[in-house]
Write the structure tokens for this entry.
Amino acid sequence: MTFAANVVRVLIASPSDTAELRDAVEVALHEWNGDRAAAAGVVLLPRRWETNAVPELTGEDGQSVINRQLVDQADVVIGIFHAKLGRATPRYASGTAEELHRAKDAGKRVHVYFSTMPINREHVNPEALATLEEFKREIEKLGLYGSFDTPGSLKDQVRRAIESDIEQLDITPPAGGPNSSRRGAALRATYEYTREPNKQGRMQTRRQRLVVTNTGDTEAADVTFTLEPAGDEGLEAPQLLHDLGPITLAADGGQIAIPVLTHMGTSNIATITFDWSEGGEPRSSSHTISFV
């Protein structure tokens, strides 16, 4: 069955040494579409310079053409770096750096991730690594960046970022979409945590919690939910430290935070299923959560 949806264009920006990682991000976007597009009324459209840029002889440099065709048209930009920053443009240290700065200056949603995966230093230019480290320090002054040690970890973080993007973009459901005629209660859960140094000075994840919010315009009564692992087989779902029983969440931002525990045996991705009563009628919904 067809459904009406808004299209969110997601540009994957990265140097040439990250082809596998670009593939992983594109897979994450397609997986989100499979899980969430119909319910959210949103379809993610991955965009990459190597597949979506159209050759044009305009008198501009190549990066300016990419900027006009892809960066300026994007709603979300995801930047990925591994062992180099990339080739310089007339304006910036690399094409990817220019795309990220241009998107940020235009007020777009921008996420930047740096790899901590092993690097074969025999095949890497030390100057390229130094330039990348300098750029990382520059990004650190502009906000918060992410780090990943496997393509799977990158996928998990991108899915988490996309959930935040959909909420922050405040997309109006299209006419005929799944939420256009009856919005009602809309329950969403996000994983939040803080990072603090231990006695040895190493950063550790602390104060983990699952935050459940009703973003809809109707009260949700008698809310219960379950967590099921959605990652590798054999892993468990994160553990909720409080059993609250049925709760009521007010309309337009009613919220509750529940302490949660993750460890080596828990999945990085879980599916949360909500059941509640809305005006005396039973309702349910589900979505995935990243615990990375």
About this structure: The radius of gyration is 21 Å. Residues 6-169 form a domain with the Rossmann fold fold (CATH 3.40.50.10140). The longest helix spans residues 19-40.
